[in-house]
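Quick one, probably user error.
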């Protein structure tokens, strides 16, 4: 398994982890369950680690595809630039989650506040990492960026019963 394989496998973790963690955290806030909040923080921390791995393996993935026919260098650069912003957001989410985890375990009065802050950061992180994934998908999946409708396979006269 090379960096490209690792990159393609791990890139989905921060996308799904940030939104799933946000849903779990929202449920934990609603249910007033510290155990559920702790589970959400763990999801966020794992997502942050996944984002770092995805970013670090991105260069190897770029080297694999940059000379392939149909791959546009500008698309790769746009994905790479946006990935850095998403990574920073997920690192902030990971740090907030570590703080939230510690505060929750200590049963601090700030537990609810840090949970709301983490939830807000997770929503922003999800938007950024989902956009990064979309841009990455355009590198090899040109159908993602297509705005035109596919041409019909039947002739206009076929299927008419005149």
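Nope, works fine. Designed sequence:
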């Amino acid at each position: 398994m090379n960096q490209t394989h690792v990159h393609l496998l791990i890139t989905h973790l921060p996308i799904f982890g940030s939104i799933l963690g946000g849903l779990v955290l929202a449920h934990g806030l609603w249910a007033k369950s510290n155990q559920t909040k702790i589970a959400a923080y763990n999801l966020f921390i794992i997502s942050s680690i996944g984002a770092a791995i995805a970013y670090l393996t991105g260069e190897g993935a770029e080297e694999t595809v940059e000379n392939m026919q149909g791959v546009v260098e500008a698309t790769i650069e746009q994905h790479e630039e946006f990935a850095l912003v998403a990574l920073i957001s997920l690192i902030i989410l990971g740090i907030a989650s570590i703080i939230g985890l510690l505060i929750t375990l200590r049963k601090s009065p700030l537990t609810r506040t840090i949970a709301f802050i983490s939830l807000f950061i997770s929503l922003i992180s999800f938007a950024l990492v989902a956009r990064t994934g979309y841009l990455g998908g355009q590198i090899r999946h040109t159908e993602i960026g297509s705005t035109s409708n596919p041409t019909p396979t039947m002739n206009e006269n076929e299927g008419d019963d005149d």
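Residues 151-156 have pLDDT under 50 and may be disordered.
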